[in-house]
Structure formats: structure tokens, C-alpha cells
């Protein structure tokens, strides 16, 4: 008779996160437009800083002090109100673990970031999805879904995978009507892609209120996805909670050095944003021209576009057709989007090739 360890029942309910792929089903290497990475790569100044990082034989600074100071200086935040993490994923998980447990509810909008569901389930909490409004967050629907068991509310702004964006007034309205003892996590992984006039005022909210946590990442516009660095800011009590439960050395020597250097190269950030804005418009227009074939690009404020397939060409066939042409994009049937593909904005040439291929596939499917 052999007994074996049994995972907690709530762990068995988790579907493991499926990351964006770079290979076709038959093992070919593809151009990866499936993980919202920066097509311009990493800034040269940041790459140079990697060689200056503390030696790998030494543990990193457990408090990421220099990095927190750099973040604080750029954004006008007291570094004591900042905590760094192994990607913002870790911080989203820690925030949930810190404030929700078995029987509690964690609320977010349908079609938002897949990690929220996992973060809730892994602490035994119940994930609750509020209905969307045309693929974006609906403040009234979120508020209507709040119960006395709600402990954490997530809002990704801009949202992945739909690209939707909630303006500052709506974010403030949502926050103002949430019970004060609910943690409001505003996930701003794509904030750096926004035009200045689109600021959702999340950092100001986090600076003023005791129940707001804003999370950010170096994985997207800063081109450091592989180094796994995120940060969060909120009231001292929330930051203290996260500091108590995070791993003591959760950001590596390389990660700390690279992120600090990346903050210093805002010219690279500006170029990345300009490239993204221009190609997002061009690609969305190219998809718009395929409307008669049932293709539709949702308006996006991120570095990706969700394309809906509402005609003869289905998303699964388009996924295969793009893979044959050498491109990996993201199909999200597990997130209730079987007829959609999320396509990361790549280089101009890549986006032209993807749009051309989609046109050819749509025409052939008629
Ligand atoms: N939030 C959102 C909305 C995201 O899309 C992502 C990346 N897919 C993350 C958080 C996590 O990014 P990272 O852990 O690399 O910081």
C-alpha cells in the first residue's frame, strides 16, 4: 500500500498558465508574436549594465534598494512605498495571498489576465468573473458582483488580452464605490504604452488610499521579460504585507542592475512607444480592411491586438495558417475566446507579413 501526498483540492482546480509559444506544433522556430514582448529588444545601455551586475556568487540586495530609489525618482514615489518582485506575476500572487484565503472571493472582469484566476485559486479563494462590456471592464458590473466575501478586486489597465482601457474617471469611480476593506489591485503592465493624456491616475490613487496597489513590470516596454522584474506601490501597510511574504532575494543581481539601467534609458522607452503606436494603428487598419471577411481588431491601448474571427475563417485555422507563414500568435480558447487571436505588435515588416497572410487566408476561406 503506498500513500502519496495529496495536493489541496483548490490546487487541483487550477489550469496551469499556458505561456506564449515560439514553436509550431511540428517544432519549427517561429517569429514570436505571442507573449507581448518588445520587438525592439532591450536597450544597448541596459545590456551593457548586465556586465556590471554584482557577481553571481553573491546574493542580491534583498531590498533592491537602488532599483526602488530609481523607480521612486522617475515616478515621484517614496521608495519605502515600493516593493520589487520576480516579475509582476509574483506581486499579483503575493497580493492575493496576503489578503484572500479559503472561502474569500477575488473579483475581476471576464477576459482579463489569466494569472488572476490562478492567484485566487492557489490560496483557496474563489475567483469571480464579472461580465465585460464589449470586451472591456464594466464598472457597474464589477460593483454589482462585490459581496461581503470579496477581498481583492483586480483591474488590468490596459487589459490583456483585449487591449481595452478604462479612463481615470471610471477607475476612480470603481475605487470610490468599493468597500474600504477590499484590496484594489490595478495592474498596469502596459501603462508605459499609453499616451500621457491616457494616464488612469492609478499611481495617484495608490499614493492617497490605504486599499490600492498598483503593479508594473520591466517585461514589456523595458524589454526585460527574461530577467523577471516587476514592482508595486501602495500604502505602507500593503507594501509591508508583501515584504513579509515575498522571497528574501526575489530579484536577481542581473535583474536589479538591468532594471536600473533600463529606467535611465527613457529614450529607448520613447522609441518603443512610438513604434508601437504607429504599428498598432497600421495593423488595426489592415485588419479593419478585412471586415467584409468577418475579421475585427478590437481597439487596443497595449502592445498587442485582439483579432476576432466572425466569418468563414476561424481563429484555429488562422493560427495554423500564420504558423505556416512562420508566426506564433496567441490563441486563447481556455479563456473563453475560441474565435480570437491575440497578436503582439512586432516590427513593421512582421506586421505587414501577418496582415497579408490573414488576408490570403480570409480570401481562401470564403
Ligand atoms: N499583468 C498583465 C496584464 C500581463 O499581461 C502580464 C504579462 N503577460 C503580467 C501582468 C505579468 O508580467 P510579468 O510577470 O512579466 O511582469
From TrEMBL:
Q: Give the protein's cofactors.
A: pyridoxal 5'-phosphate
Q: Which Pfam families does UniProt cross-reference here? A: Aminotran_1_2
Keyword entries, A-Z: Amino-acid biosynthesis, Aminotransferase, Histidine biosynthesis, Pyridoxal phosphate, Transferase
Q: Which residues form the Aminotransferase class I/classII large domain?
A: 29-358
Q: N6-(pyridoxal phosphate)lysine is carried by which residues?
A: 220
Gene Ontology terms: biological process: L-histidine biosynthetic process
Tell me the leader sequence span.
Answer: none
What's its catalytic activity?
L-histidinol phosphate + 2-oxoglutarate = 3-(imidazol-4-yl)-2-oxopropyl phosphate + L-glutamate
Q: In which pathway does it act?
A: Amino-acid biosynthesis; L-histidine biosynthesis; L-histidine from 5-phospho-alpha-D-ribose 1-diphosphate: step 7/9
**EC number(s) per entry:** 2.6.1.9
Identify the InterPro entries for this entry. Aminotransferase_I/II_large, HisP_aminotrans, HistidinolP_aminotransfase, PyrdxlP-dep_Trfase, PyrdxlP-dep_Trfase_major, PyrdxlP-dep_Trfase_small
Domain of life, per UniProt, equals Bacteria
Q: Which GO terms describe its molecular function?
A: histidinol-phosphate transaminase activity; pyridoxal phosphate binding
Family assignment from sequence similarity: Belongs to the class-II pyridoxal-phosphate-dependent aminotransferase family. Histidinol-phosphate aminotransferase subfamily.
The entry describes its oligomerization and partners as: Homodimer.
Annotated protein name in UniProt: Histidinol-phosphate aminotransferase
Q: Which gene encodes it?
A: hisC
